[in-house]
Design brief:
alpha/beta, binds coproporphyrinogen III, single chain, 9 strands, globular, TIM Barrel, two-stranded antiparallel ribbon
Length: about 350
């Protein structure tokens, strides 16, 4: 069992900087596209043998130090009672978006072992076959709320902020239901075998620090508190974290995910000596010539050595346009450079 990633998450000393990549299973890989040619995305998420198959692919082909469960953050939202569709053009669509008290009242808090049993089954298949740790995940309440209220992806998050600012209790009731769902879902994943969990807050960067503190952070804190005692490291990733570091620091997570819009050295300085960081190469840097990828990775690795711990990752997910060869090159380069830097 390769436990370098688990050790880094706990801030223990490691022989090299472990690396995994958000969206490491995906369309940039020929082997993933071959599976996707035979099934639609939601069927892939809900068929444990296939979801496990594409989870294994980057571990076997890229040599990353962790696997991440293949699923989507919107899967539990469907289980809460919304109709979910993935359209090739528009991305995710949630029908009849949440705008009223009646909508919120109609949502249920799913029982993960029953309503999301395919996820737990996928985790069990993975644990039986993996030689690296398995990461489970969920969307953070604010990010899930944006999809539920907007009905899909958004640019200005107008409907979300309108509900947030209305102060009639509706936003709070919705967030309470989402928070209970996420807590139960992550606990079930851990019980099924997830060894680390990551909470994705993809859209929290659109909030001012004061709004983040009032409307997003308390719910994340509640979830992390519920997971304490289960002895599984929690990673909290906020995309667009640079202006929110002071608040993010107080979330209680073991590892903080950092996007590429902030220098790793500045993130390490702001988050303090106790923080383990994950990140933070610009996903588009993987389009550069190999020597440039190497130089950028080296810079991040050296700055990461100043933190209590560092897990190398991109600042966001691998894009479908990235050559798989460059991704493999990056993983090997991180292992080489970081082993050398620690000698
Ligand atoms: O990281 C992994 O390899 C695990 C799998 C994973 C997927 N989605 C697979 C996926 C994870 C962890 C996610 C999380 C997710 N899903 C997030 C948070 C992380 C982030 O990217 O910010 C969000 C916001 C979503 C919602 C979502 N799912 C969108 C907006 C889209 C459409 C955009 C796109 O990239 O196509 C998806 C679809 C999706 N999720 C795909 C994959 C591999 C592409 C679907 C396909 O194969 O056609």
């Amino acid at each position: 069992m390769n436990d370098v990633f688990l050790k880094a998450c706990r801030g223990e000393s490691v022989p090299y900087t472990p690396v995994w990549l958000m969206r490491q299973a995906g369309r940039f890989m020929k082997e993933y596209r071959e599976v996707r040619d035979t099934v639609d995305f939601l069927t892939l998420c809900k068929t444990p043998e296939l979801a496990a198959k594409v989870t294994f692919q980057p571990v076997d082909l890229l040599g990353v130090d962790a696997a991440i469960l293949f699923s989507d953050i919107l899967i539990p939202v469907e289980a809460m009672g919304m109709r979910l569709e993935f359209s090739e053009k528009k991305g995710p669509v949630l029908h009849d978006p949440i705008r009223s008290r009646a909508h919120v009242d109609r949502l249920s808090v799913p029982v993960p072992e029953d309503d999301l049993s395919f996820v737990m089954e996928t985790i069990k298949i993975l644990r039986a076959g993996l030689k690296v740790p398995l990461i489970g995940f969920s969307g953070a309440p604010f990010t899930l709320a944006t999809y539920m209220i907007e009905g899909g992806s958004s640019k200005n998050f107008l409907a979300t902020k309108k509900m947030m600012y209305q102060s009639n209790g509706l936003y709070g009731s919705l967030m309470d239901k989402i928070t209970d769902t996420v807590s139960a879902y992550l606990k079930a994943q851990i019980k099924a075998g997830a060894q680390v969990v990551q909470i994705f807050d993809t859209w929290a960067g659109v909030l001012s620090p004061a709004d983040f503190k009032a409307y997003a952070l308390p719910y994340v804190k509640r979830i992390i508190k519920e997971l304490k005692g289960l002895d599984v490291p929690v990673i909290y990733f906020v995309n667009g974290c640079a202006g929110l570091l002071k608040e993010i620091k107080s979330a209680g997570a073991d590892v903080l995910g950092v996007d590429w819009r902030i220098d790793m050295a500045d993130a390490a300085r702001s988050l303090g000596k106790k923080a383990v960081l994950q990140g933070n190469l610009d996903p588009c840097a993987l389009l550069m010539p190999k020597e440039d990828i190497r130089r950028k990775a080296q810079d991040i690795i050296e700055k990461g050595l100043k933190a209590k711990g560092h897990v190398f990752n991109l600042g966001h997910g691998v894009l479908p346009e990235i050559p798989a060869e460059n991704v493999k090159y990056l993983v090997d380069a991180v292992h080489e450079i970081s082993a050398e830097a620690r000698r």
